[in-house]
């Protein structure tokens, strides 16, 4: 293999490992800490001889801060992900122009809204001018991801209510309901909508004060203020916001003092006509360990449920992402395969597409169904429902009203061959079995017979609406 290609592949693998590690740290640390300190990290090179991996940050201050507080955690995470990593070295990105650190108050990086400075005073991946920083150390758009906007959010039946409610919350007119409570499982878009509300509200109210945090981060700040006898300042700062966005509210479970402060904050902001949005992975009534008064406040506005994305929405999401990669061609059968197979959450779906395209671009290969199966093994295996070939054969036989024994017979009658070919195609799409393994389950047929059947049904689905309808109906039965 060419050295340049090998280096590119190594870079892709390191990036994939870092994506997994970063996601885990986000869950452990909360969105705020993660956005401030972990997200800006860039993965450098790995030296196989010494087992040393370089991690780079934009400034000396941020590199020292991360090294002091997260070095052990980062080192352990990388050693688990890659046994060959023995040392993790945290440093300033080489060749990066160094700027004076932007500090607000005496405890830079410790209070709400203060982030490590970057080139162009970039904060949390978002360029801000110095005059957006308020006198209390807040920024008007702290922690908002610039890519998570309403325009980038793809809607379908499962999320249209939450989307419309979020848009209404961000408009100039006073919303009919507050607070808005977004309920969805992991990776279904609730965090995206929180960020989109913040961006849209800031566009309509340029001087608005917005605060976005996770419930875990809220508790961290609350405890720090309590220990430093700064509760009055904490309350004053928190209640000065025009829009409060709190993610993962389920993590405030059991923290009585923090719950009480959040309750008082909600009452104070609502009394002044301010807007509040909360997000969680469960309904308010399902939050065990939360005081009844707080549950009442959380559910008094609108609880908007985001259901798991259906197959049509997953297709639309993939199509919307493909425009970023033009003129790269992604075959329709690959999109269909990803949409059907990666069905746990939208985040994994988009991540799978990104990984596949990055691999294809860096290696010069064409995007194909075979490449998707080879490179997305972990994601696909985690999402696949455990459907067996026996189950597929039984369902196909019932659908076409043929005897089960025909799946293994040598008969060549069309009424038998076509259902058998459909069953082979479904076995390849819905199970991790290889062509030879599938052939053995169909009367010991050769793998070339299975390949022919798969390609034939794929072609027929493109040309024959009845065949496509049959396959779609069978897929719904088997995946339900």
Automatic annotation (TrEMBL):
Q: Which SUPFAM superfamilies match?
A: P-loop containing nucleoside triphosphate hydrolases (SSF52540), TrpR-like (SSF48295)
Segments for region (Domain I, interacts with DnaA modulators): 1-107
Q: Does the keyword Isomerase apply?
A: no
> According to its UniProt record, where is this protein located?
Cytoplasm
* GO terms, biological process: DNA replication initiation; regulation of DNA replication
| Annotated spans, Domain IV, binds dsDNA | 361-480
One GO molecular-function annotation for this sequence? Answer: lipid binding
Q: Where is the AAA+ ATPase domain?
A: 176-305
The record's keywords, sorted A to Z, are: ATP-binding, Cytoplasm, DNA replication, DNA-binding, Lipid-binding, Nucleotide-binding
Q: Which CDD domains match?
A: AAA, Bac_DnaA_C
Please indicate which superkingdom the organism of origin belongs to.
Bacteria
**How is this protein annotated for GO cellular component?**
cytoplasm; plasma membrane
Please tell me where ATP binds in this chain. 187, 189-191
Which residue intervals define the domain Chromosomal replication initiator DnaA C-terminal in the entry?
388-457
Task: Please give the function described in this protein's UniProt entry.
Answer: Plays an essential role in the initiation and regulation of chromosomal replication. ATP-DnaA binds to the origin of replication (oriC) to initiate formation of the DNA replication initiation complex once per cell cycle. Binds the DnaA box (a 9 base pair repeat at the origin) and separates the double-stranded (ds)DNA. Forms a right-handed helical filament on oriC DNA; dsDNA binds to the exterior of the filament while single-stranded (ss)DNA is stabiized in the filament's interior.
Q: Which family does it belong to?
A: Belongs to the DnaA family.
Matching HAMAP family: DnaA_bact (MF_00377)
Domain observations: Domain I is involved in oligomerization and binding regulators, domain II is flexibile and of varying length in different bacteria, domain III forms the AAA+ region, while domain IV binds dsDNA.
What is the annotated quaternary arrangement, including any partners? Oligomerizes as a right-handed, spiral filament on DNA at oriC.
Which NCBIfam families has this protein been placed in?
A: DnaA
Descriptive protein name: Chromosomal replication initiator protein DnaA
Organism classification = Bacteria, Pseudomonadati, Pseudomonadota, Alphaproteobacteria, Sphingomonadales
The gene coding this protein: dnaA
């Amino acid at each position: 293999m060419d050295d340049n290609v090998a280096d590119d592949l190594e870079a892709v693998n390191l990036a994939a490992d870092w994506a997994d590690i970063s996601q885990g740290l986000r869950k452990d640390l909360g969105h705020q800490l993660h956005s401030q300190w972990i997200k800006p990290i860039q993965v450098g090179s790995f030296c196989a001889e010494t087992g040393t991996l370089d991690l780079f940050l934009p400034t000396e201050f941020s590199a020292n801060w991360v090294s002091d507080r997260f070095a052990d955690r980062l080192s352990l995470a990388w050693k688990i992900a890659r046994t060959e990593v023995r040392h993790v070295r945290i440093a300033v990105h080489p060749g990066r122009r160094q700027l004076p650190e932007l500090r607000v108050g005496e405890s830079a990086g410790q209070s709400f809204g203060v982030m490590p400075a970057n080139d162009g005073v970039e904060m949390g991946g978002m360029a801000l001018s110095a005059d957006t920083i308020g006198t209390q150390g807040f920024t008007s758009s702290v922690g908002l991801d610039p890519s998570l906007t309403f325009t980038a959010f793809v809607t379908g039946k499962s999320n249209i209510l939450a989307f419309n409610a979020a848009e209404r919350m961000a408009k100039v007119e006073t919303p009919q309901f507050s607070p808005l409570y977004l309920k969805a499982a992991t990776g279904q878009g609730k965090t995206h909508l929180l960020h989109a509300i913040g961006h849209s509200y800031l566009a309509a109210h340029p001087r608005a004060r917005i605060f976005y945090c996770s419930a875990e981060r809220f508790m961290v700040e609350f405890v720090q203020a309590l220990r430093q006898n700064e509760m009055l300042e904490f309350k004053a700062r928190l209640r000065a916001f025009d829009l409060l966005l709190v993610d993962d509210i389920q993590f405030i479970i059991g923290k009585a003092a923090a719950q009480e402060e959040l309750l008082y904050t909600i009452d104070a902001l609502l009394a002044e006509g301010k807007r509040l949005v909360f997000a969680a992975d469960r309904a308010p009534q399902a939050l065990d360990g939360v005081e009844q008064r707080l549950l009442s406040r959380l559910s008094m506005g609108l609880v908007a449920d985001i259901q798991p994305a259906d197959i049509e929405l997953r297709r639309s999401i993939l199509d919307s992402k493909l425009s970023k990669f033009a003129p790269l061609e992604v075959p329709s059968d690959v999109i269909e395969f990803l949409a059907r197979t990666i069905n746990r959450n939208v985040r994994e779906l988009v991540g799978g597409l990104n990984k596949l395209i990055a691999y294809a671009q860096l290696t010069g290969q064409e995007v194909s169904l075979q490449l998707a199966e080879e490179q997305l093994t972990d994601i696909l295996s985690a999402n696949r429902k455990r459907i067996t070939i026996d189950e597929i054969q039984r369902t196909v036989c019932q659908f076409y009203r043929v005897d089960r024994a025909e799946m293994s017979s040598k008969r060549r009658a069309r009424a038998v061959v076509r259902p058998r070919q459909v069953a082979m195609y479904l076995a390849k799409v819905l199970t991790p079995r290889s062509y030879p393994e599938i052939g053995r389950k169909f009367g010991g047929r050769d793998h070339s017979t299975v390949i022919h059947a798969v390609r034939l049904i794929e072609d027929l689905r493109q040309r024959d609406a009845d065949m496509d309808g049959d396959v779609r109906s069978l897929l719904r039965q088997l995946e339900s």
